[in-house]
C-alpha cells in the first residue's frame, strides 16, 4: 500500500480561524480527517505532520526518505524564502508535490515566487483543500509512478 507524508508548514494549524476568506472555514483536523477517509477508500496510507518550525520540517523531510513513497507539502510562507527547505527537498529522492490552498499568484507580490518549486515534482495552486487530494491522486497515478 503506498504511504505518503502530508506535511504542513507554519500557520496551517490556524486553518479555520486564519483569514477564512482566503483559506476557508475548515480546520487542519477537518482537512486531515477528510484526507484520511479519501485515502482509506483508495487503499492509500497517509501520515500527517504540521510544524511552525523550519528545522522540524527539514527533519521531517530527511526522515521521510526511508518511510514514505512521496510527500504532499504545503510549506506556507517558507515557500517564498527557505533555502534550507529547498536543500532538504533536493537531498531526498522522493517525489514532493508543493500545494497551496490559495492562488498565490492573485495575492501579494512576495507570494508569486517559490524557491521550492524547482526541486519539487510539481505544484498545485489555488484549488483550495482539494489540491491535497489532487496531489495524492498524482502520486498514485502512472505518471507519479508509485503503486
Ligand atoms: C499558502 C500560501 C503562502 O503564501 C502562505 O504564506 C501560507 C499558505 C497557501 O496554502 O495558500 O501560509 O501556502
From TrEMBL:
<dbReference type="InterPro" id="IPR036441">
    <property type="entry name" value="DHquinase_II_sf"/>
</dbReference>
<comment type="similarity">
    <text>Belongs to the type-II 3-dehydroquinase family.</text>
</comment>
<dbReference type="GO" id="GO:0009073">
    <property type="term" value="P:aromatic amino acid family biosynthetic process"/>
</dbReference>
<feature type="binding site">
    <location>
        <position position="74"/>
    </location>
    <ligand>
        <name>substrate</name>
    </ligand>
</feature>
<feature type="active site" description="Proton acceptor">
    <location>
        <position position="23"/>
    </location>
</feature>
<dbReference type="InterPro" id="IPR001874">
    <property type="entry name" value="DHquinase_II"/>
</dbReference>
<feature type="binding site">
    <location>
        <position position="87"/>
    </location>
    <ligand>
        <name>substrate</name>
    </ligand>
</feature>
<comment type="function">
    <text>Catalyzes a trans-dehydration via an enolate intermediate.</text>
</comment>
<feature type="binding site">
    <location>
        <position position="80"/>
    </location>
    <ligand>
        <name>substrate</name>
    </ligand>
</feature>
<keyword id="KW-0028">Amino-acid biosynthesis</keyword>
<feature type="binding site">
    <location>
        <begin position="101"/>
        <end position="102"/>
    </location>
    <ligand>
        <name>substrate</name>
    </ligand>
</feature>
<keyword id="KW-0456">Lyase</keyword>
<dbReference type="GO" id="GO:0019631">
    <property type="term" value="P:quinate catabolic process"/>
</dbReference>
<keyword id="KW-0057">Aromatic amino acid biosynthesis</keyword>
<feature type="site" description="Transition state stabilizer">
    <location>
        <position position="18"/>
    </location>
</feature>
<dbReference type="GO" id="GO:0008652">
    <property type="term" value="P:amino acid biosynthetic process"/>
</dbReference>
<dbReference type="GO" id="GO:0003855">
    <property type="term" value="F:3-dehydroquinate dehydratase activity"/>
</dbReference>
<protein>
    <recommendedName>
        <fullName>3-dehydroquinate dehydratase</fullName>
        <ecNumber>4.2.1.10</ecNumber>
    </recommendedName>
</protein>
<dbReference type="Pfam" id="PF01220">
    <property type="entry name" value="DHquinase_II"/>
</dbReference>
<comment type="subunit">
    <text>Homododecamer.</text>
</comment>
<dbReference type="GO" id="GO:0009423">
    <property type="term" value="P:chorismate biosynthetic process"/>
</dbReference>
<feature type="active site" description="Proton donor">
    <location>
        <position position="100"/>
    </location>
</feature>
<comment type="pathway">
    <text>Metabolic intermediate biosynthesis; chorismate biosynthesis; chorismate from D-erythrose 4-phosphate and phosphoenolpyruvate: step 3/7.</text>
</comment>
<dbReference type="InterPro" id="IPR018509">
    <property type="entry name" value="DHquinase_II_CS"/>
</dbReference>
<feature type="binding site">
    <location>
        <position position="111"/>
    </location>
    <ligand>
        <name>substrate</name>
    </ligand>
</feature>
